[in-house]
Amino acid sequence: MKSKLLDDYAEKYTSAELPYLAKLNRETNLKRGDAVMLSGHVQGAVLQMLSRMIQPRSILEIGTYTGYSAICLAQGLKEGGVLHTIEIDEELQDIASHYIEEAGLLSSIQQHIGHAKDVIAALNESFDLVFIDADKSNYELYYDLVFDKVPVGGYILADNVLYDGEVVLPETEQSKNARAISSFNKKVKADSRIDHLLLPVRDGIMVMRKLRE
Length: 213
Fold this sequence. Notes:
Blueprint: H1 2-12, H2 19-31, H3 41-54, E1 58-62, H4 68-74, E2 82-87, H5 93-102, E3 109-113, H6 116-122, E4 129-132, H7 139-147, E5 155-159, H8 176-190, E6 194-199, E7 205-210
Parallel strand pairs: 1-2, 1-4, 2-3, 4-5
Antiparallel strand pairs: 5-7, 6-7
Helix pairs in contact: 3-4, 6-7
């Protein structure tokens, strides 16, 4: 109860959702049985704030879902900037496209449908900001694939790094995904090429800044 009260309090004292994000939030929750995957109001506001602070020219998002986080991240793009977002489930493309258009971001967000490892390899670009929010078993792979595409001083974010609290359990009691996330967190901690901060927002966001190649 205490946690729910604090969550409600945080939402109350966070700037209101943009109208099209509120509509997307509602539609996703009404139509999708897996709506827990949606970033939601407070986490979306965190992503939006971080992006506005970084002011990236280029963003890569791995895991579009229904487009909520992509729209939040795109709010911080410099004029003429582009966000590339990758989703494996083509059935989600229509709803994401609808709200990307409603947000006025069709020219700023490019949707890619396919396996992330293949799409990442085909993108011959540099990204000031990367957001990893896809299949947990491949977080380490995605981190390795994007690292050289991020310039020194650029940022990588990873979602769900607390995995519903399972990461603090003994390994024998963790689910497969929780073990993958625990391994990813250890990899990040051991990487001297970055500095990093685990934000205990919602299900945990790892913020990483690249220090050197």
